[in-house]
Amino acid sequence: QAQLVESGGGLVQAGGSLRLSCAASGNIFSINRMGWYRQAPGKQRELVAVSNNGGSTNYADSVKGRFTISRDNAKNTVYLQMNSLKPEDAFVYYCNALVTIRQAMGVMTRDYWGQGTQVTVAS
């Protein structure tokens, strides 16, 4: 199994910055993509940014130019630097990773999710 643990959420004034971190741990063989999603109560989870194994990244249009995703593969950690935050960026942010884990009979690949971290932006 693998676990994703997020940190870095909190309350910030509009125009401010936050940095989210997500560390993967467990019986990990390899990690493919790592990314961030966000979700409002009663709404679908939406993609914020993703970092693929080859180094390519993708961003939601609403965060392009303000948010930056990065990875430290040696630490199995993904970061989301969020600048120029707006009240409409206030969501619960979830880390996601496509992880290949070691098992007794080989390996298995599946999606894992973190527990979520709240970002609140005061206007």
Structure, explained:
This protein has 123 residues and is mainly beta. The protein contains no helices and 11 strands. It has strands at 2-7, 10-13, 18-26, 28-39, 46-51, 57-59, 67-72, 77-82, 91-103, 106-113, 117-122. The strands form 2 sheets. Strands 2, 4, 5, 6, 9, 10 and 11 form a 7-stranded mixed beta sheet that branches.
| Low-pLDDT residue spans | none
| Tally of individual helices | 0
DSSP strand tally: 11
Task: Describe the largest sheet.
Answer: 7 strands, mixed
Helix content: under 10%
Rg over CA atoms: 15 Å
| Class by alpha and beta content | mainly beta
Mean pLDDT across the residues is 96
Short description:
With 123 residues, this protein is mainly β.
Mind sketching the topology for me?
Layout: E1 2-7, E2 10-13, E3 18-26, E4 28-39, E5 46-51, E6 57-59, E7 67-72, E8 77-82, E9 91-103, E10 106-113, E11 117-122
Parallel strand pairs: 2-11
Antiparallel strand pairs: 1-3, 3-8, 4-5, 4-9, 5-6, 7-8, 9-10, 9-11
